[in-house]
Amino acid sequence: MDNHNIKSEMIMGSVLDGVRSGAPIRWDWMNPDYTTIAFVGDKDRSARKSIVRKMATNINQYDNKAVYWITSDQSSESSYPVENDDSITWLEEKPDLSEEYDPNQYFRERRGIFPATYFDLIAQGKGRFNLRDYVTAVSYRAHMEGPTHGYQRTFESLGDSSAKEVLLEALEKTGNVEWHVTPEGRKFTIPAGVSVNEKAAAMVLAMWSFWAQVCRFDNPQQFILIIEPDKDLMIGEHESELKNLLFRVFDAMRSLSEEITMSLVLSLETMFPIPELGIRTRVLLQTHQSDLDMFTAEHKVFFGPRLYEEWGQGNSHVAYIQDSYTGESCIGELHPDRIGFSEYQVVGANIAVPEPGTI
Predict the structure, then answer these.
(1) φ/ψ (deg, to 5) at 181
(2) Is the residue at 342 inside a domain?
(3) What is the pLDDT of residue 68?
(4) Which residues of the chain have pLDDT under 70?
(5) Distances in Å between the alpha carbon of 71 and those of 123, 133, 225?
(6) What is the pLDDT of residue 109?
(7) Which pLDDT score is estimated for 74?
(8) Is residue 330 part of a domain?
(9) CA torsion 33→38→39→41, rounded to 10°?
(10) CA-CA distance, 181 to 82, in Å (whole number)?
(11) Closest by alpha carbon to 123, among 167, 157, 158?
C-alpha cells in the first residue's frame, strides 16, 4: 500500500447548530494548513479514543506506513507483531548536516533536544538523581557523529556508580525501540506502573525514534503521528520542570509537521500543551478532573446549551470544534461509526461557512 491511492479528506461528522446544521465536517488531513489537531476529552466519559482510533484505522487501511501512535493505552498491543527500530543508532552514526542543507540548524537543534530531555527524565525518574550533578557538559564530534556518542563517553567516565548503570542502560534502549504493528498503525506503548518521569522519558524516546525513522525514509511519505499520554503526565503545576521538558519535545514534533508531510494529532484529557503549541483545530469533548473544566458556569455560557443537552442525553461523541486561527467554531457530532473518507474534495472549505466544513 502506498500514498498514491490515499484520500486526503475525511468526513468526521456533521454540524449540529446554526445555519450550517447538517453540513458535513471534514478534516483535510494532508493539507499543510490543517496538519495540527487536538482532541480533548475524558477517556471514559467521552468518545475521544474511539474517534481517534477510527481516524487512524481509516488511514492505515490506505497506507500501512503512514500512522504512528505514542500511547498509554495498554490494551491488546502485545498481541500484535513487534518491529524493533534501530533508527536512533543509525542516525547517531551520521554527522550534523552542513549549513547548506540545514541553514536554520533545525536538524542539529532537534538531535540535541531528544537525548538531553530523555536522559534528564531517566535520571530523575529511574535514577532519582539530578543529571546535572553528574553530567555538566557533553561534547561530540559533529563532523562525524551524533550527540549520544558524547553522552556515552561521559557516562562511561563516571566510575562505579548507580548513576552510571542507569544512564548506560537508558542509552542501550535507544538502539532497540519496540513498535507494535496493529490495524490502527504502529504503536509505541508508554509503560504503566512506573513513575511519571519514567513515563515521560518513554514518550520522549518514542518521539525520538519516530523522528529518526522519518530521517531514514528515502521515498516521499505522508505521516500521521498520534500522541496519547495518560492524564498524570500532562496535568500538574503550570511551568513545572516536567512540563517545560515535555513542551520542548512536543514543540519539536509540532515544528516537524511544518517541515515534512506530517499531521500531528494530540489525543488528551487536558488542554496542556494545546494552547502553548498553537494547535490549530481543537475538538473539545466532555472532560473530568482536568485542567479544563467544561462544566463551570462561564463555560456553559460560552459553549451554549446545545452541547450540554447532547451530553445529558449520553451523546459522548458531540463536541465543540474550534479553528483557533480564524476563531470560527461549531457544535458537531463525530460519531466513530460514521467517520470515513470523502468521495469528493471541497477546495477551500472552512468549518465556519455554510458549505461543508473542514476541521
Answers:
(1) -95, 105
(2) yes
(3) 98
(4) 1-7, 76-77, 104, 238-239, 343-359
(5) 22, 31, 11
(6) 85
(7) 87
(8) yes
(9) -150
(10) 6
(11) 167
As a whole number of angstroms, the distance between CA 6 and CA 2 comes to 7
Residues 194, 107 share a domain: yes
**Amino acid identity, residue 249?**
V
The Cα diameter of the chain in Å comes to 71
The x, y and z cell numbers of residue 105, run together, are 540548524
Buried residues in 298-329 as b, exposed as e (16+ CB within 10 A): ebeeebeeebbebbeeebbbbbbbbbbeeeeb
CA distance 273 to 291: 11
Do residues 191 and 168 make contact, with C-beta atoms less than 8 angstroms apart? no
Q: How far apart are CA 122 and CA 168, in angstroms?
A: 11
pTM over 0.85: yes
| Count of domains for the chain | 2
**CA proximity to 204, closest of 255, 250, 138:** 250
Q: What is the pLDDT of residue 309?
A: 97
Cell of 210: 519516530
Domain, as residue range, for 104: 83-178+189-220+230-247
Within a domain: 310: yes
Together in a domain, 216 and 131: yes
Rounded to whole angstroms, the Cα distance separating 226 from 57 reads 12
Which contiguous run of DSSP H or E holds residue 244? Answer: helix 241-259
* Per-residue pLDDT at 350: 38
pLDDT digits (tens, 9 = 90+) for 289-347: 999 999 999 999 999 999 999 999 999 999 999 999 999 999 999 999 999 987 644 33
pLDDT at 238 (0 to 100):
65
C-alpha cell at 93: 552514526
DSSP code at position 28: E
Q: Residue 334 in contact with residue 25, Cβ under 8 Å?
A: yes
